[in-house]
Specification:
- The structure is a single chain.
- The protein is built from two helices and 21 strands.
- It is mainly beta and 295 residues long.
- The protein folds into two domains: 163 residues, Immunoglobulin-like; 112 residues.
- Strands 11, 12, 13, 14, 15, 16, 17, 19 and 20 form a nine-stranded antiparallel sheet that branches. Strands 2-1-4-8-7 form a five-stranded mixed sheet, with no helix packed on it.
- The longest helix is centred in the middle third of the chain and has 10 residues.
- It is elongated.
Length: 295
């Protein structure tokens, strides 16, 4: 696979192609239609210093290459999956590198734009989407050249570009992969693992659907068992896996009596959905507003 390394000095949303010394380059990075490539972007600050890995910590990426600014028409190339951010070292410098796999560069939309010309300079845009959001946290635009082909060897059958909409399974996957938001607090009673947790000023209790006072403070699921005063890690957002679970995927999970988790809504007390079953053994923690039931 062809590896195209591009240094970009980023000023706001504008990415200027530079060399490894942060000096402007007047050569436009170029790929070829039908040639699988990996576009490796190394963003730099205006002063030439590389971005840190933490500055590129996004749940999802959306990369498009388009010949116009009309968002209602499909771009010529679109990549939304398998984009990775890694650290690479070159010389004595460490870069955060955004690796974009361009495995499909023979789209119907690209062929229509290139026609029989030698090639064209198109606009590229990379958007990083924060966890739990739909608005980009970072947006970088730059020019990208695409050369046409004289032959058809290994180009494959042209395919249309998708509309960029994430499916429900992709959304769930994005949320699961970014799991890890937790609160650590002392146990106010003997705590069992994988129970709904009620967090108060005194510490962590088991939440219970028959104790209405616990509803507002039910924030997550315990990740460990603990004796009184020992630390309890309560996962408040993201994924949790337990091999002994046997949930029905796609169905909500509720707070039960004594902190037990159940997929049957309680008939008394209050109802609070605390998670969604992603698989039989993995849940996506996402506490919803409690609903108090009539006495």
């Amino acid at each position: 696979m062809f590896d195209l390394v591009v240094y970009l000095r980023v000023d706001g949303v504008v990415g200027t192609v530079v060399d490894s010394y942060a000096q402007r380059s007047y050569a436009t990075p170029t790929i070829a239609r039908g040639l699988a490539a990996r576009l490796s972007l190394r963003p730099l600050h205006v002063d030439g210093s590389p971005f840190a890995l933490s500055e590129l910590d996004y749940a999802a990426w959306d990369f498009v290459v388009a010949h116009d600014w009309i968002t209602t028409t499909p771009p010529q190339i679109r990549i939304q999956t398998d984009i990775e951010v890694v650290e690479v070292e070159e010389g004595e410098v460490t870069y955060a590198e955004i690796q974009i796999p361009l495995t499909n560069t023979n789209t119907e939309e690209l062929i229509a734009v290139l026609g029989s010309t030698e090639g064209s300079t198109l606009g590229a845009e990379l958007a990083g989407i924060p966890e739990g959001d739909s608005i980009p946290g970072i947006l970088i635009q730059f020019d990208l050249g695409v050369r046409n082909r004289r032959g058809t060897a290994a180009t494959g059958t042209p395919t249309p570009v998708g509309d960029g909409t994430y499916s429900s399974s992709q959304v769930d996957a994005l949320l699961v992969v970014k799991a890890g938001h937790s609160i650590t607090a002392p146990a106010a009673e003997i705590i069992h693992g994988h129970r709904a947790a009620w967090i108060t000023a005194d510490g962590v209790y088991h939440a219970s659907s028959d104790i209405p006072a616990s509803a507002p403070g039910t924030l997550g699921i315990t990740a460990n068992a603990a004796e009184i005063a020992a630390d309890v890690q309560v996962r408040v957002l993201g994924s949790m896996t337990e091999p002994t679970w046997a949930w029905t995927p796609g169905q909500p999970i509720y707070v039960g009596v004594g902190g037990a988790l159940t997929q049957t809504p309680p008939a008394a007390g209050y109802i609070r959905e605390i998670a969604l079953a992603v698989t039989a053994t993995t849940v996506l923690i996402r506490p919803m507003m409690p609903i108090t039931l009539a006495a």
